[in-house]
Write a structure and sequence with these properties.
Blueprint: H1 15-36, H2 42-58, H3 65-87, H4 95-130, H5 144-148, H6 151-163
């Protein structure tokens, strides 16, 4: 179950691949929107949300942490990098102009980033709860008292077998019949 994605029939990808998928779609959305309209718009929003949701849905269960925390990191890294690569200010522009060119898309992307982070964390938490590993030491139909090894679940025949079992520490299984050792 640990190597499955959100769908039980589909194998999950490594966390690095899932984060890479989200980063690639986000960078693609930023680049297309900056080239098309000069600011972040609908294409960025669709690519960013789709990449983050696909990453958290497709990753293996044991690698959920990376895709769950990636939305704010993607915006903080991908947006400035693509802005500086695609449309940096004129060579004579000062520091204030550069900060405005990079800062404006970051500020405008904040609501999308906040909603996406909430959605992705919710999906991840649901996956962590729903896809918990089952207790492999017991069968699903076995009563709880038998799984815990209580005297009620073992029965009379199980008491002696538990005391003389292979590898059991001497005195490890105590019942009301066995007095404590001094």
């Amino acid at each position: 179950m640990a190597d499955r994605s959100m769908l039980a029939t589909v194998l999950g990808v490594l966390p690095v691949a899932a984060v890479g998928l989200g980063a690639a779609l986000t960078a693609l959305g930023v680049f297309v929107d900056l080239a098309r309209v000069g600011s972040l718009g609908v294409v960025f929003t669709i690519c960013y949300i789709a990449g983050c949701v696909l990453a958290v849905a497709w990753v293996r269960r044991n690698g959920l942490f990376g895709p769950m925390v990636q939305p704010p990191l993607l915006v903080a890294v991908a947006v400035p990098v693509v802005v500086l690569l695609a449309g940096s200010p004129k060579p004579g522009a000062g520091v204030a102009q550069r900060l405005l060119v990079v800062g404006a898309p970051l500020v405008n992307a904040f609501p999308i980033m906040a909603w996406t982070t909430g959605i992705v964390v919710a999906i991840g938490v649901v996956r962590l709860i729903v896809q918990r590993p089952l207790d492999s030491a017991s069968a699903p139909g076995e009563p709880v008292s038998a799984r815990r090894g209580s005297a009620a679940g073992r029965g009379a025949a199980g008491k002696g077998a538990a005391r003389s079992g292979r590898g059991a520490a001497r005195g490890a299984v105590r019942t009301s019949e066995s007095p404590p050792r001094s």
